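Weekly modeling sync, notes
Attendees: AB, CL, MP (scribe)

Item 1: holo prediction request
CL wants a bound-state model with MV4 before deciding which constructs to order. AB pointed out that an apo prediction alone won't tell us much about the pocket. Agreed to run with the ligand included and paste results into these notes for async review.

Input as submitted:
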Amino acid sequence: MIKSLLIANRGEIACRIIKTAKRMGVRTIAVYSQADADALHVRLADEAHLIGGAAASDSYLRSGRILSVAKEAGADAVHPGYGFLSENADFAELTADAGMIFVGPPPSAIREMGLKDRAKEIMVKADVPVVPGYHGNNQSPSFLKRKAYEIGYPVLIKAVAGGGGKGMRKVGKALEFDEALEAAKREAMAAFGNDVVLIEKFVESPRHIEIQVFADGHGNVVHLFERDCSLQRRHQKVIEEAPAPGMSAEVRAAMGAAACEAARAVGYQGAGTVEFIADGAGGLSEDGFYFMEMNTRLQVEHPVTEMITGLDLVEWQLRVASGEELPVKQDDLTLTGHAVEARIYAEDPNAGFLPSTGKLVAMDLGGVSDQIRVDSGVEQGDVISPHYDPMIAKLIVHGATRDEALESLEGRLRAAQIAGPVTNTAFLANLCADPTFKNGHFDTSLIDTKLDDLISTKPIEAATVCAGVSGLIERQRARIEAENRGEQLSPWQAADGFQLVGQRELDWQFTLDGERLSARVRFGADGIEMSDGKDGWTKKSNTATVYEDGGQLFVLDDGRQSIFEETVQQAGDVDGAGASDGRIVVPMHGKIIAVTVSEGDSVEQGDLLFSVEAMKMEHAVLAPSDGTVSELAITAGEQVENGFPAMILVAENESD
Ligand code: MV4
């Protein structure tokens, strides 16, 4: 058995591999980039070695450096995880050349599956169904166009070296063919340095169904059933599940057998996934699925398979790589219940899924059990950096039925406590609740078709705003009270006799998601209440949770994050219904640092009036509107109390 394992990866998959290795008593060796010095995978491993700079090309893709670290650390095996070097046949070969075990398939299997035309050729020979089409050597445009005609439009042009939809073009009719071919070839050359293409019949309502296979070095091959990964956006998987909705035992057996044949055809060993495309239009059938490609690695979504089979696929990988036989035969394998995985990302669905970065001020997805699993490479306090994939965690739930699993997942997503970066949790929860997804009759177009509904967010509730504003006021009060050691000088206990409980109101200014706002607030019997001046008074939401970091309050409520910041209070407090009367008060107890206006000056909205220092911080007080300075009552250097009348800004039309 392997005794020490170098994990040539980072993030959640490195942590996932370390977990099983530790349980099996295998010594774990991590590698890390400069950006990952404090990363969770480094903390979890028995030892860790720096391999270079933050950019993947300077660290996690440096095969030579990684292998020399592995040698020096005495590793007897290398696990590549997924991504990075995981499907690099040269790396697999170099690992073996250096006298270590590559935890993955033979380099030849990686190479043969690497190009789509070669892989298709092998599958045809092995009687694995492939999409009707042409995948030969003749690349003459007129020949390819004739093939497209024979196949029948619509067709799909695909780069043989392609992936992630690059170098792929749908062609609806012969008139569009020449242009589409040129575009596909140009894109493929730029992306892969290889512009060979194949032509396929276009499958109109595609479902992505993949089979997990496992092969050992003793001629045994089994499949661990299917996963449905049809919920994708721009070829990135979003939610995966096992089993596939609508899958019958007969179709499963047919697909499983085809996947095992595919693995045998390339002399596969270890964990692999055979991707099929199925026509979703008329339900799954024994002759309605086609080989797409084989992923020669452990995949991101492997946990759903683990949950329905009760197996640990990393343990199987390590055992097979050590030369052991697969522990079970096909007939021993059973499938229990339903598992769904959601990929939680630091990204903003409302801003075109733009990645979001920064400190994880809060990161809690709830407790775990046999039915609920969280795979993550980060913890609260860690930073989502711009250098790598912004996945925060995978949330995987198991239920007796699909409905139960989806309900459980949606509940967990809505309750997720992730503060700091913007996340896609609300989007994922909306997907779980989508009627088409729930009824199981969906294909790969679902997310694009329903995008507007999935990302729609209701306007923020007044009660949520009140929770944020309360937080800001409480925080300021605590700060001022601490400063004054019991002197009663908070906005609620001002020197002019403000009553803690009473009719007194303040126009409180604050910043919400970068926008400066104002709300009328008062201290009611149950705490701070807020009014927008129209609909009476709102109490703070009792479902909101509030986190503080770096001067900001992060409020999570109803699956959405809102960020509140203090703003220097400009207009003074007001009594009852009275609006701002041009009175500018000193916003906090402190020392006047500078007064930048003189009696009679004309100022414009936003001009600096004066600055005050409190708590070693300088606060600028800006003109809330245009006006002329009168009754100026402060001078630089003096100590003033909160609420002290500093000046009156007389509106221009009244000033003369
Ligand atoms: C197809 C197809 C329809 N017909 N092939 C997209 C990426 C690559 N792995 C295969 N892909 C497709 N191949 C034929 N003949 C539609 C897709 C496709 C797709 C496939 C799986 C999951 C999501 C997809 C999204 C768009 C298109």
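Recorded for review: Residues 131, 156, 165, 200-203, 206, 208, 232, 235, 277, 292, 444 surround MV4 (CB under 6 Å).
Action items: CL to compare against the apo run; MP to circulate these notes.
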